[in-house]
Amino acid sequence: MAKIKLTKNELKKQKDALKMYERYLPTLQLKKQQLQIEIRAIEARKRELAEAKLALDAEFRAWIGVFGEIGAAYDAGGLPLLSVKYIKTGSGNVAGVEIPVFQGAEFELAPYDLFLTPLWVDSAMDRVKRALLLDLESGILDVQLERLALELKTTSQRVNLFEKVKIPETAENIKRIRIYLGDQQTAQVVRGKIAKRKVIERAAS
Fold it and tell me: Which of 127, 151, 181, 196 is the most exposed place for a label (fewest CB within 10 A)?
């Protein structure tokens, strides 16, 4: 515990500090709660995406043999027919933390010969697009989790600092100063009484 001055000015300073800590603590606790709720919601969404991806993978199994047989999902240069052109994201705010929000993606489909390419390729590309959207959204959610988890760590440290250090320490300082000032006041009263008695004794002699 830091050394403090046992004075009235210091008492006021410590009281003001205690009021400030007690005023900010509920705000920090609320922010911590909001972050925890949002993190749980994002984790739940990631589980939904993972389940959807598993279901989609099950659909893909029906196509694996065909893909492997003729490689129709690739263009003449060996590149995938479908690629991500760009990812569309917005901006969100959770308890003062800026996070990216997934809004979709634009895809680019390489030109292919409609007569030479099997009919199932269109359906396959649709499934590939759905799978990519799931992966892209999951990636954005990972960024959200990373930012919110970092803020939650910082906020939790501040809550603990206020709850377990600053507030108890300041309350103890106030108690010490009050006891000291009370003792000083009592001693002053006693000294005053003694001085008064001596004056009376001198006057009587």
Answer: 196
Say if residue 43's pLDDT is above 90.
yes
- What is 122-165 written as a DSSP string? HHHHHHHHHHHHHHHHHHHHHHHHHHHHHHHHHHHHHHHIIIII
Average pLDDT over residues 118-136: 80
Q: What pLDDT sits at residue 70?
A: 45
pTM of the model: 0.77
**Amino acid letter at 73?**
A
What average pLDDT is seen over the chain? Answer: 85
Other residues' Cβ atoms within 10 Å of the Cβ of residue 166:
19
pLDDT at 195 over 80: no
Q: Give the three-state DSSP class for 44.
A: helix
Helices then strands, counting H and E runs in the chain, come out as 3, 2
pLDDT of residue 93: 95
Sketch the domain layout of the chain as residue ranges: 8-184
Report how far apart, in Å, the C-alpha atoms of 67 and of each of 118, 121, 124 are.
10, 9, 9
Coil, helix or strand at residue 72 = coil
Residue 34 to residue 146: CA distance in whole angstroms:
15
Provide the b/e sequence for 9-22 (b: ≥16 CB within 10 Å): ebbebbeebbeebe
At 65 the pLDDT is 58
